[in-house]
Amino acid sequence: IDGISVLGGPDPVVVMDGDVKIRRGMVIPGGGTVNTFWTGRSVSVSNTSFVCFGKFVDNDHFVYGSDGLLAQTGSQILPHLPGYVWQQPSNGKEFTAVAVNNRGEYAIAGFGNSSTDTDCVIVMRGPKNVIAFQEGQYVDMDSDGYLNDQAWTISQIYGDSMVLDDNLNLTFSAQITAIGNPSPTKSGLFSVRLPIPGDADRSGEVDAV
């Protein structure tokens, strides 16, 4: 099989250029033995890379891609933030969505070990390690550049709708709640451009001097 193929069923598998990259029973170095990963909503594929999330046999969760193990239960969310780790919430899994672009850059959505009003987070991994969005940040609902709307924040990222393009535009759907009032909730589609210092022309690369 040329390129990247994802096959579901009782024994899900990702095949890349004829090589099996992940399947049930495989041992991931630094992680554990794969119990399962959910092909319908937890695998993102670009022309050159893939990323998925799933569960080890010991019930810890993981994110795995073309570059190997990217995250797992208890691992640091970003290299420069010691003590800030992925942690399973009381009502779900650490990881809720993943995305990869053709440049091999990854976005991971899930839950960290912060308070319940800030624990939902999207991070960018790869050459650039940044927090793209964190629960508790205000959402500019009318996109006028001012935080003059009702105070809404993202409270959970939906698992089958995150896309990262090569210019670091991240699109995702999410549940939103009013800050200070967790009920009722609404759903929204969002687009966030991840910042790159020195990229004034928005090409995805630092501008030549």
**Number of discrete helical segments:** 0
Oligomer: single chain
Radius of gyration: 17 Å
Structural class, by secondary structure, is: mainly beta
| Residue-averaged pLDDT | 79
Main pleated sheet: 5 strands, antiparallel
Helical content band: under 10%
Form type: globular
Quote the distance from N terminus to C terminus: 43 Å
Low-confidence stretches: none
Count of distinct strands: 16
Q: What is the beta-strand fraction? A: 35-45%
The secondary-structure element order is EEEEEEEEEEEEEEEE
Features of this protein?
209 residues, mainly beta, 5-stranded antiparallel β-sheet
Structural features, described:
With 209 residues, the protein is an all-beta fold. Helix content is 0%, strand content 44%. The protein has strands spanning 4-7, 13-16, 19-23, 34-37, 43-45, 50-56, 61-65, 68-72, 95-100, 106-111, 120-125, 130-134, 152-157, 163-164, 169-178, 181-193. Strands 4, 5, 6, 7 and 8 form a five-stranded antiparallel beta sheet that branches. Strands 9-10-11-12 form a four-stranded antiparallel beta sheet, with no helix packed on it. A hairpin with a 2-residue loop joins strand 7 and strand 8. The N and C termini lie far apart (43 Å).
